[in-house]
Amino acid sequence: MIEDATTLVDELGKKFDYVEVNEQSTVIIPADKLLEFMQALKDDYGMDFLTNETAADYPEENKFEVVYNVSSIENGITIMVKTSVDRDNPELPSVFSVWGGANWQEREIYDLMGVVFTGHPNPKRILLDYDYEGHPLRKDFQWKGGRE
Amino acid sequence: MAVDNGKQIKTAQKDIWPAEYFGDNPDYKEPPELSRLIHLTTVDKVLNLARGYSIWPLGFGLACCAIEGLMATQDPRYDLSRFGWEVNRGTARQADVMVVCGTVTTKAANFIVRLWEQMTEPKWCMALGGCAISGGPFVDSYHVVPGVNKLIPVDVYVPGCPPRPDAVIEGYLMLQAKILDNRKFLEKYKGKVVTG
């Protein structure tokens, strides 16, 4: 039984050798270890709820950062997990198999950022039209205004 | 008695009958007793009378304007039912006016047009609030249609963000004047109204 988030984050940093912990107690993991790490979080540490999943665009470093806020309802703690993905070929495994709540959130990230989640049950756009071209939340997104 | 009939009758009638029955009065052919009882008009005018006093709106709340335009306007304080227009239809087949309340996104554009085409003639459209009129504050966004008039013909524009319920009722009154072809009412709004 882990009482607070910093204890959990320290423990994760000790246990997994690929885990980085920065000064904000954010857990940073490589993309290829994502699924096994998340599964371990859920099974071994009781993190049973994906509060939020989102992404940020860093064109200078040519990467997207995908951010997961994972909570434990039982213990009342929340940690932030980050992973980076290449901007030219943004593909990540879907965590839908771990937390069902990832379904719509990953659809939204695909819709607005263009990160493709492999293994997602329904990888379609969710907010914009299905035939919309481009991903508007990317920083290099160019668009001619609707104003006349 | 051999007299000039016409002349005599004329003088006699001038004394007995009121003056408006004779001479160059255009109402001569329509005496007031009759005009109270009989109206000569077109069927269209009668139908429009019925339409204008029983507008059934198709509630079409897309965003925050729906709270003002569809809810507050029909609540007890402003009470659209006073005019006989409150019967909000959930189905397009039974509605007369589509009240577009809120931001029209490109994804919503499809079914706005579809519902508009499902509505039976005669039909009218009210654009409520800045978003429905022109895109409003979101006009530069990547998925907002700059005004519902890009999709369907609009009869009444009610500006505001959001419009007050009084403004919505005024919009309904203008729509009624348009249906009844009540030019006198619309001329009060000179510069704001285009009369066809």
UniProtKB/TrEMBL annotation, chain A:
An MF annotation (GO) of this entry: oxidoreductase activity, acting on NAD(P)H
Domain NADH:ubiquinone oxidoreductase 30kDa subunit: 28-145
Gene3D superfamilies attached to this UniProt entry: NADH:ubiquinone oxidoreductase, 30kDa subunit (3.30.460.80)
Keywords carried by this UniProt record: NAD, Quinone, Translocase, Transport
Pfam family of the protein (one): Complex1_30kDa
Coiled coil: none
Stretch forming the signal peptide: none
Reaction(s) the record says it catalyses: a quinone + NADH + 5 H(+)(in) = a quinol + NAD(+) + 4 H(+)(out)
InterPro entries given in the database record: NADH_DH_suC, NADH_quin_OxRdtase_su_C/D-like, NADH_UbQ_OxRdtase_30kDa_su, NADH_UbQ_OxRdtase_CS
Protein origin, superkingdom: Bacteria
EC number: 7.1.1.-
Similarity-based family: Belongs to the complex I 30 kDa subunit family.
Function: NDH-1 shuttles electrons from NADH, via FMN and iron-sulfur (Fe-S) centers, to quinones in the respiratory chain.
Name of the protein in its database record: NADH-quinone oxidoreductase
Species of provenance: Desulfoscipio gibsoniae DSM 7213
TrEMBL record, chain B:
Catalysed reactions, semicolon-separated: a quinone + NADH + 5 H(+)(in) = a quinol + NAD(+) + 4 H(+)(out)
Membrane topology type: Peripheral membrane protein
Gene3D superfamilies for the chain: 3.40.50.12280
Domain of life: Bacteria
Cofactor remark: Binds 1 [4Fe-4S] cluster.
Keywords from the named record: 4Fe-4S, Cell membrane, Iron, Iron-sulfur, Membrane, Metal-binding, NAD, Quinone, Translocase, Transport
Residues annotated to bind [4Fe-4S] cluster: 64-65, 131, 161
GO CC terms of this entry: plasma membrane; respiratory chain complex I
GO terms assigned for molecular function: 4 iron, 4 sulfur cluster binding; iron ion binding; NADH dehydrogenase (quinone) (non-electrogenic) activity; NADH dehydrogenase (ubiquinone) activity; quinone binding
NCBIfam families per UniProt: nuoB_fam, PRK06411.1
Protein name: NADH-quinone oxidoreductase subunit B
Gene source species: Desulfoscipio gibsoniae DSM 7213
Gene label: nuoB
